[in-house]
Amino acid sequence: MSSKEKPTEVLDVRGEVCPYPDVKTQKKIKSLKSGDILEVLIDYPLSAERIPRSMEKRGHEVLEVEKKGTSEWSILIKIK
Amino acid sequence: MIDTTLMLSGLVVGIIFGFVLQRGRFCMNSAFRDIILMKEYTLLKAVALAIVVQMIGFHLMAQTEIIQLNPKPFLWGAVIFGGFIFGIGMVLAAGCASGTTYRVGEGMMGSFVALLGLMIGTVITKLGALAWLDSNLKSDTFKAISTGDLGVDPGPLLKEGSTSLTLANVFDLDPWIFVAIIAVVILVVLIWKRGGEETQVEGTLYERIFKRGWNWWITGIAVGIVGIIAFPTFKKYALGISGGWFSFLDTLISGDADKLNWFAFLVIGVVVGAAIAAVIAGEFKLRAPTARRLLQQFIGGLIMGIGAIIGTACNIGHILSGIPQLSLGSILGGAFIILGCWVTAYIVFMRG
Asked: Residue B161 burial by CB count (10 A; 0-12/13-18/19+): exposed, middle or buried?
């Protein structure tokens, strides 16, 4: 699990409320190619746990979930 | 006069409840909406388990005369209408009554605005401009169907004088038959469908309790236990959220401290407990979405408040506390909360 992979695109959903972080992430993923890496910046705890779960279920690879600060996370997803 | 001991007990139960809600991310709006929106069942499993734990706990306590079950009346017109619009409101508010309340403790201003809407919605529906709608939906046309109407016995575990319908008394069967069937079916499904959705558990016990989100089954059991503590503490009912916020605003407007009820202390406790949990976990942050989203959440909260008063309870009063008492009114109300949630989630998130 490499944590140094460079994201192809960054999606900032900080400030968004349930379930917009998840919906926007799903939408973004559809516009990306296989092998691309998406970084999601998020501050909503429920989605910070739910997004990695649902991405893995869809077959994408979650490279890293890093807590960056108070209620702030970065999620790195490698597209299937 | 305020019964100080009783009120303090509400605050303490509320703090525990808020802590559990925040750690478990326990929100029924997410639980039901995610079924259709993202085929995610994690929170739904927690809700189902909490219902089973409480159903067994409530019936054991009623059997041993620690409590008397107090199911809500079968006001079918009111719970159908109120439940449905409550479901609409919670999608727009981005959280159910309990989800909205615990997120205020996380510093989410959108939830704070939704909560203001909810409080206003409850007061205008119970006392103000919408009281006509509430009373019409509870008038003779939509009269509650009681055990007397069906010619059945209310059963031994209910509060004296209660004529509310339950699964047990309408079928004239022992409540334990339903408790056993429902518990076995839910537990079998949960065990069969287990795994794959667990939050990653790593770190020390302290970290797992205070720093990371809980697994669904821990959340479900914990929420269930809080309900089991709440019922004999308050005696008249188990957990509820919307009635507490109504009482809170009603007291502020009237200046009459006698209007403060147990639930008001409970909901204040929930905010405090969630804030404590969020601060310890490093998840407390004052934050706000866009103006457009704030407006949406306010309107959602308002609709939820209206729905909770008309429908005789919010998601907690019906689904978490009422269904475990096998209340038919709560089962119908809960079903329409879910229906309202699905219709709205489909229109808002899934169309096109």
From this structure: exposed
> Residue A9 forms beta bridges with which residues?
A38
CA distances from A42 to A20, A57, B97, B160, B219 (A): 11, 20, 23, 52, 23
Q: Say whether A18 is catalytic.
A: yes
User: Out of B30, B110, B196, whose CB is closest to A46?
Assistant: B30
pTM of the prediction?
0.95
Cβ pair A22:B38 closer than 8 A: yes
| C-alpha gyration radius of chain A | 11
Q: Do B30 and A23 touch (CB under 8 A)?
A: no
CA distances from B55 to B10, B39, B96, B166 (A): 21, 26, 21, 13
CB contact under 8 A, B282 and A67: yes
Facing A45 at nearest CB: one of B196, B213, B349: B213
User: How far is A35 from chain B, CA to nearest CA, in Å?
Assistant: 23
pLDDT in tens, chain A (80 residues): 445 678 999 999 999 999 999 999 999 999 999 999 999 999 999 999 999 999 999 999 999 999 999 999 999 999 99
Whether A80 contacts A34, CB under 8 Å: yes
Q: In this complex, which of B108, B278, B349 lies closest to A23 when CB atoms are compared? A: B349
Reported as a single tens digit per residue, the pLDDT across B137-170 is: 999 999 999 999 999 999 989 999 999 999 999 9
Query: Is A71 near chain B, with CB under 8 Å?
Result: yes
Give the per-residue SS3 of B202-255.
CCCHHHHHHCCCCCHHHHHHHHHHHHHHHHHHHCCCCCCCHHHHHHHHHHHHHC
